[in-house]
Amino acid sequence: MAILVVGSVAFDSIKSPSGNAERVLGGAASYFALAASNFTQVRTIAVVGDDFTPKEEAVLTSRGVDISGIERVRDGKTFFWAGEYASDNLNEAKTLRTDLNVFQGFDPKIPASWSDTEFLFLANIDPVLQSNVRSKMPQVKLVGGDTMNYWINDHRTALLETIKTIDILLINDAEVKSIADDKSLPRAASKVLKLGPKMLVVKHGEYGATIFFGDGSHPFRAPALPIEEVVDPTGAGDSFAGGFMGYLASQGEVTRESLKRAMFYGGVMGSFAVERFGTERLQHLTREEIDVRFQLFRQLTHLD
User: Fold this and answer.
1) Which of 47, 84, 164, 241 is packed most tightly, with the most Cβ within 10 A?
2) Contact 61, 113 (CB under 8 A)
3) Homologous superfamily of 3-300 in CATH?
4) By CB neighbour count within 10 A (0-12 exposed, 13-18 middle, 19+ buried), where does 198 fall?
5) Helices 173-180 & 185-193, crossing angle to 10 degrees?
6) Residue ranges of the domains in the chain?
7) Would you say 22 and 232 are in contact if contact means Cβ atoms under 8 Å apart?
8) Is 67 in contact with 47 (CB distance < 8 Å)?
9) The whole model's pTM is what?
10) What DSSP string runs through 178-212?
11) How does pLDDT run across 229-257, given as a tens digit for each residue?
């Protein structure tokens, strides 16, 4: 089944203890689409400038991603972000520069031919835009969503309205606690679920992820695979979301068992993403590599 992602396509410049990378393909929608494309058909809505060339387009289309929903703005530049990771904290980037460029005027437009889309993911964008897209796609079977502290702190009212319309919210520990204003993760998760989502996936970075259920059933924790060298953590969370949602879309039916497997596939895709700068590792990934690593994840939690 097709999945539609709405979010950013960007160029990133990144510094980490492993080196530097200049103007590599990034953005939440790019990471998500490349990860999800290993499991199902992916459609992408974003906006780019005239510096987004056929070379960048080919990165997505070569993986089967439908980019007919990406708007191209003449005489404008693509969203650009520059960040740096310190050797003692690879979980948080220091932003060096942010140029919104054409992304500042982003107004998602859904192609009429995509009305049969059954899975939708609202990546980290203005919650008003997320809500607008959601309202135009009442037929979707499952909606996933992401956000960040900027929207939580400065656009809280709009964000809370959007959260009501999302089936699965995928955010990190700090964001859960910030939304709930509670330092206890279990309590905070319970409070967030009461805001509307049926499920909450909490990403713990290098420590894995936990899914909490609004029906009161016990949560499920998936581990993270230890990586010898993390080159670039940028996009790991978006790659996790792509693996998670992409696998669910490939299964059609959303059950507790499919959700548990989706958690593992999300972890697999996140672990691959950090091995190279930008989306490079995801661009050349094979399904065989994914399945081998999936088995490694299963072994981490197997008890005879």
Assistant:
1) 241
2) no
3) Ribokinase (3.40.1190.20)
4) middle
5) 70
6) 3-300
7) no
8) no
9) 0.96
10) HHHT-S-HHHHHHHHHTTS-SEEEEE-GGG-EEEE
11) 899 999 999 999 999 999 999 998 899 99
